[in-house]
Amino acid sequence: MHKTKIFKLQDQLSFAELSGDYNPMHIDLVKARRMYFNRAVVHGIHLLLNGLDLLCEDLNHPVYPLSLRCRS
């Protein structure tokens, strides 16, 4: 099943507040346009956590991850 999530600036601002990551490439639309991707990009961990959330929605039982490892 294909799912789509559109991250809005408010999503990014809320995640920045929780994570402490206020890098302008994530939360400042003007400064982000001058950077590598020419637009704001979603925090990587925010994207990963959202993907896990969407994956778990389709399961018929609760999931309780004990750990998570990721590499960039």
Mind explaining what this structure looks like?
The protein is an all-alpha fold and 72 residues long. The chain has a domain at 9-57: Thiol Ester Dehydrase, Chain A, CATH 3.10.129.10. It has four helices and no strands. The longest helix has 14 residues, at 44-57.
Outline of this structure?
This protein has four helices and no strands. By secondary structure, it is mostly helical. It has a domain at 9-57: Hotdog Thioesterase (Thiol Ester Dehydrase, Chain A, Roll), CATH 3.10.129.10.
List the helices and strands and how they pair.
Elements: H1 9-19, H2 24-27, H3 29-33, H4 44-57
Task: Output the keywords.
72 residues; single chain; elongated; mainly alpha; 47% helix; 4 helices; Thiol Ester Dehydrase, Chain A
Name the overall outline.
Answer: elongated
Instruction: Kindly state the percentage of residues in helix.
Output: 40-55%
What is the rounded distance between the termini? Answer: 26 Å
Q: Look at the structure and give the CATH class of the domain at 9-57.
A: Alpha Beta
- Secondary-structure-based class equals mainly alpha
CATH homology group of the domain at 9-57: Hotdog Thioesterase
Strand content of the residues, in percent? under 5%
The second-level CATH architecture of the domain at 9-57 is: Roll
Q: What is the averaged pLDDT score?
A: 88
